[in-house]
């Protein structure tokens, strides 16, 4: 019988032998010591059960230790763990055939990697080789990886180091219709709009033109006339579920292509049905990327990533040898195949996501410290503010109190946004209405507790 190490022993090892940074991002004042997972649930070493609405950052897509996925892994582990993809073996071909079928023409050529950063590194390289250009544009607040190259795409200081990162990487203003300088109540593609007052004529989003204007300014000031690529997450992940004005991606893609660049959709968080209405986050925006990158949910938590592109781009890239030892590992492929076989997850994302968004928007209306509720499917953000009028971020200490309390009542959620001001809800795509109701009750209670403590402290200091 397997027994966990003692908590003290694990913390000591963490202090002595682990990446010191993980101590800082342990997130909770009282850490959670995980023992086991099943579907949407996690158990700690003391047997306490948590509803996991963060899913290892949108990674456990169909459920922790999903029985069918686990069975597929076990079956493959008994047959073949590894070989190099210079040989021909079934799991890889079964998988890429299935994955290609989920993507529209001309996105049909697949490269398998082991992580999202690796996929984005590869996509950067492809874009540069194919276009013969160097400069790449991303959105402020985005996250595209932590390798020295992708660190340049990522636009969040917390993840940057003082090295020669990001040569040729430029950011344009994040078209955030809640917290940004422009935006209002009818700009984005979401069941829930921001409650910010907007002077735009009804149905016409002027904010989009303003943010596109910022992109044009980047073209005019920061890059050569020809560029290699634009990288964009269909809905920001780490950046706090930011959604853009309706035509922003479409207009951006057009301008980028006019300058010789290719358009890259980073679907590391938004892929595989997470946005509910579509299987891929880019769908529904009237755009067609030239390259799509994916990871996280691709294999339900098993390390894997992929880049999908066109035959044309693959041909430009094919002039050199690209090799990756683990990319296309048979076990990873068998797992990823069984993830694709799992029916109904996109529907659950759509239904439960919409239900959660509706519930959260009611809670938003009750509390002065909730500024915005947004997202699509099970990619949801709740932006916390000092007050609705200022839209200024709720300070980290207050965020932590609500976050810790939510956890103590049995629900794990995430934090994000450039200022750590947004709660992130991106559960395994198997949650039920009861789970959603439980979370809504817990979150409401945590906010209530916070407000009561705040009122008490004001009264005491009088
Ligand atoms: N792109 C996005 C949108 C991500 O959220 C992440 C991870 N948070 C990455 C890329 C990098 O993926 P990985 O951590 O697997 O390298």
Automatic annotation (TrEMBL):
Catalytic activity: N(omega),N('omega)-dimethyl-L-arginine + pyruvate = 5-(3,3'-dimethylguanidino)-2-oxopentanoate + L-alanine; (2S)-2-aminobutanoate + glyoxylate = 2-oxobutanoate + glycine; 3-oxopropanoate + L-alanine = beta-alanine + pyruvate; 2-oxohexanoate + N(omega),N(omega)-dimethyl-L-arginine = L-2-aminohexanoate + 5-(3,3-dimethylguanidino)-2-oxopentanoate
Coiled coil location: none
Cofactor: pyridoxal 5'-phosphate
Keywords, ordered alphabetically: Aminotransferase, Mitochondrion, Pyridoxal phosphate, Transferase, Transit peptide
Keyword Transferase in record: yes
InterPro entries for the chain: Aminotrans_3, Aminotrans_3_PPA_site, PyrdxlP-dep_Trfase, PyrdxlP-dep_Trfase_major, PyrdxlP-dep_Trfase_small
Main location: mitochondrion
BP terms from Gene Ontology: glyoxylate catabolic process; L-alanine catabolic process, by transamination
EC number: 2.6.1.18, 2.6.1.40, 2.6.1.44
Lineage top rank: taxon: Eukaryota
GO cellular component, one term: mitochondrion
Enzyme class: transferase
Quaternary structure, from the entry: Homotetramer.
Annotated function: Multifunctional aminotransferase with a broad substrate specificity. Catalyzes the conversion of glyoxylate to glycine using alanine as the amino donor. Catalyzes metabolism of not L- but the D-isomer of D-beta-aminoisobutyric acid to generate 2-methyl-3-oxopropanoate and alanine. Catalyzes the transfer of the amino group from beta-alanine to pyruvate to yield L-alanine and 3-oxopropanoate. Can metabolize NG-monomethyl-L-arginine (NMMA), asymmetric NG,NG-dimethyl-L-arginine (ADMA) and symmetric NG,N'G-dimethyl-L-arginine (SDMA).
Family in the record: Belongs to the class-III pyridoxal-phosphate-dependent aminotransferase family.
Annotated protein name in UniProt: Alanine--glyoxylate aminotransferase 2, mitochondrial
Upper lineage: Eukaryota, Metazoa, Chordata, Craniata, Vertebrata
Name of the gene this protein is made from: AGXT2
């Amino acid at each position: 019988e397997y027994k966990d190490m003692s908590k003290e022993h694990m913390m000591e090892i963490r202090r002595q032998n682990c990446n010191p940074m993980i101590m800082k991002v342990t997130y909770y004042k009282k850490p959670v010591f995980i023992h086991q997972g099943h579907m949407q649930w996690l158990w700690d070493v003391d047997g306490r059960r948590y509803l996991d609405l963060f899913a290892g950052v949108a990674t456990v897509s169909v459920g922790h230790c999903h029985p069918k996925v686990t069975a597929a892994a076990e079956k493959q582990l008994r047959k073949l763990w590894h070989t190099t993809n210079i040989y021909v073996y079934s799991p890889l071909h079964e998988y890429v055939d299935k994955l290609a079928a989920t993507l529209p023409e001309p996105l049909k050529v697949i490269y398998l990697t082991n992580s999202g950063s690796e996929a984005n590194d590869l996509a950067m390289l492809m874009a540069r080789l194919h276009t013969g250009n160097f400069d790449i544009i991303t959105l402020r607040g985005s996250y595209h990886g932590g390798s020295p190259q992708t660190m340049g795409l990522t636009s969040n200081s917390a993840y940057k180091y003082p090295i020669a990162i990001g040569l040729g990487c430029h950011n344009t203003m994040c078209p955030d219709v809640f917290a940004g300088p422009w935006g209002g109540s009818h700009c984005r593609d979401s069941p829930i709009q921001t409650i910010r007052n907007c002077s735009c004529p009804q149905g016409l989003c002027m904010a989009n033109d303003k943010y596109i204007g910022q992109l044009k300014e980047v073209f005019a000031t920061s890059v050569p006339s020809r560029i290699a690529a634009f990288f964009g997450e269909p809905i920001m992940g780490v950046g706090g579920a930011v959604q853009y004005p309706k035509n922003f991606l479409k207009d951006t893609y057009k301008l980028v292509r006019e300058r010789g660049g290719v358009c890259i959709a980073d679907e590391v968080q938004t892929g595989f049905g997470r946005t509910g209405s579509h299987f891929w986050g880019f769908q529904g925006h009237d755009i067609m990327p030239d390259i799509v990158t994916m990871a996280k949910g691709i294999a339900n938590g098993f390390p894997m990533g992929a880049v999908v592109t066109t035959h044309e781009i693959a041909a430009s890239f094919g002039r050199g040898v690209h090799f990756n030892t683990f990319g296309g590992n048979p076990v990873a492929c068998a797992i990823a195949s069984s993830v694709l076989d799992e029916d109904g997850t996109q529907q659950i994302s759509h239904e439960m996501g919409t239900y959660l968004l509706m519930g959260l928007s009611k809670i938003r209306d009750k509390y002065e410290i909730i500024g915005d509720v947004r997202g699509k499917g099970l990619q949801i953000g709740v932006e916390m503010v000092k007050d609705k009028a200022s839209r200024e971020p709720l300070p980290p200490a207050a965020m932590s109190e609500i976050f810790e309390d939510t956890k103590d009542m049995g629900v794990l959620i995430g934090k994000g946004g450039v200022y750590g001001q947004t709660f992130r809800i991106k559960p395994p795509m198997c949650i039920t209405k009861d789970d959603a109701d439980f979370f809504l009750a817990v979150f409401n209670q945590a906010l209530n507790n916070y407000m009561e403590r705040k009122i008490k402290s004001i009264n005491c200091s009088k």
